[in-house]
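A brief tutorial aside. Many learners find it easier to grasp structure tokens once they have seen a single protein encoded end to end. The record that follows does exactly this for DUF7793 domain-containing protein. Read the sequence first, then the structure, and try to relate runs of similar tokens to stretches of the chain.
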Amino acid sequence: MEKKIESFGQLDFWLLPAGILEVRSAAGLEKNSPLTLAEAKKIEAVQAEYHRESGRSIRLLVRIDNMTNATKEVNAFWKTAESKLNDPDTSGIALLANNLMTKMLGAVSLAINRQEYPTKLFQSREKALKWLESLEER
């Protein structure tokens, strides 16, 4: 069963079966503003808290279907050591993009921000979840 564990800014954080974390646009938001630095840091904090409390690897599904872009500060943050603190505990991240614009945004993001763990872009939530479930604990 899915369980909403937190909300922050324009984001909702959900815990899914099989220990997968999902980041979604907050309920009721049809179009988001650019992702803020505070929201990016909150994404990292929620992952760290999940790993600390559960002892499990991080498997993250990020729904970018309503996201427009990220601020310059966010793009710079993803390259810092602070944003990499969860990397050793991360099994993989799936980005879910269901339209051409967000698919392009996701592809650019994956190309620019290479990670030590598997990352993949999906158009199907079911395929993304299946892929995340197949990843081994770290």
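Self-check: Helices lie at 37-54, 72-77, 100-112, 125-134. If you spotted this yourself, you are ready for the next section.
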